[in-house]
Amino acid sequence: MLEVKQVSKLYENQRGVHGIDFSMSRGEIVGFLGPNGAGKTTTMRMITGYLNPTHGSILVDGLSMADHPKKARQKIGYLPETPPLYPEMSITAYLQFIADLRGIPVKEQKRRIGEVIERLGLQGRERQIIRSLSKGYKQRVGLAQAILHNPDLLILDEPTSGLDPKQIIEIRQLIRELGENHTVLLSTHILPEINTLCNRVLIINQGRIVLDGQPDQLANSMGETFEVSLEVKGPREAVLSELRSVPGVSGVKELNPVEVAVQAAAASTDNEAVEPETAAISAAVAPDDTDGTVKVLVSSADREDIREAVFYRLAERRYPILAMKKESLSLEDIFLKLTTNESLDSSPADASDDPEEVASNA
């Protein structure tokens, strides 16, 4: 559906994007991650035809954005971070205006406008002036204009930015539904949103794609060691000694109560979970009620799965394993690992710092 081939956008005194190369198949929802100034918005603007790349090519459903820009744009729906709305217009008037711009035949406009209003939950607000809408409803109108012409590809730049939790849930559900019939490229700073919505993630840093993969497989591809946490019943020194002697084990680290509490809190997926710092403090001051058990983190340097060997060794010594959990990097860990080397004095080429936009406003 989308092919971005070795695309670069170069500026004389500012960092651009370099050799961006990826493709998207029909029906994919792809998350586009990166720190501020990494090049996300610049890349999206080139895909949608708002910026011309210095090098490389962009194809939308086989159509070159350079050779057939009008036809290629007809296949794209774009929601910038700030929705392109006219605050003095009503929702219906605005969508009729967009329908005219998109070349939707007059006889089909009423039907299409009615469909997107129903799909985006705007019924009963058709005559409402956009200025008077909440930010969540403005975002819905922005999505409505993006899908009005039934595009094959949707480009969404920070669609949940600045929304309250209820609005975020509603917009995410809308994106899931849109993903059933559209290919979606979604830029976001909210990392849990990637796990919730996307079946693939791209991470960009300093203008280059540094990772491309499925969210649930990223940890394995990035992990330098295989780690498993254990809770074992038995004498402390004997358990630690046995674990260190297991073939393939390169490290055994005993976990203190604070580390255990932080791990448990960080692993929780409950939105109401206790903050890791709070849980750690509580664990540190709580009485020790785990007499006779040892909590450890066991690692393998060559990424070999050591769980079976550990199980049989401890079972042979009659030290019961009360808990065993394979540890993996979170998406937050991976993101930080790939992007924290960004130079602080580099000039961003993203969002409002886009050089062409700055120049046009001068």
UniProtKB/TrEMBL annotation:
Belongs to the ABC transporter superfamily. Residues 342-362 are annotated as: Disordered. The keyword Phosphoprotein does not apply. Keywords: ATP-binding, Nucleotide-binding, Transport. Residues 351-362 have a biased composition (Acidic residues). Residues 2-231 form the ABC transporter domain. This is ATP-binding cassette domain-containing protein. GO terms for molecular function: ATP binding; ATP hydrolysis activity. It holds the Pfam family ABC_tran. Gene3D superfamilies: P-loop containing nucleotide triphosphate hydrolases.
